[in-house]
Amino acid sequence: MWSMWAPPLERSLLTGVTYAGAQIGNTAVMPLSGLLCKYGFAGGWPSIFYIIGTAGVLWCLLWFFYVSDRPSQNKRISKKELSYIENSLADILASDSKK
């Protein structure tokens, strides 16, 4: 995904933020799971699956609605931003083809 969307100079930062976000999410869910197990509905521990599963389904629906594979396919991107991304990626593709 980032290979199509992120300009090369920003790609490492965006990838780092993505992986850090995944770890922060895991860290946040662990205590939440403990609380749901103790105080949750549906017998305690099943509520963990209901809550986190519902959040996952909502995330997927938002992702499918708002995210596109390529900047050129996105309906909400500005022409200036699209031009910036395509030009920065074109520079990399041109330098790779010369090798």
UniProtKB/TrEMBL annotation:
BP-aspect Gene Ontology terms: monoatomic anion transport
Alphabetical UniProt keywords: Membrane, Transmembrane, Transmembrane helix
Main location: membrane
Domain Major facilitator superfamily (MFS) profile: 1-99
InterPro entries in UniProt: MFS, MFS_dom, MFS_Na/Anion_cotransporter, MFS_trans_sf
Membrane topology: Multi-pass membrane protein
Annotated organism of origin: Wuchereria bancrofti
Protein name: Major facilitator superfamily (MFS) profile domain-containing protein
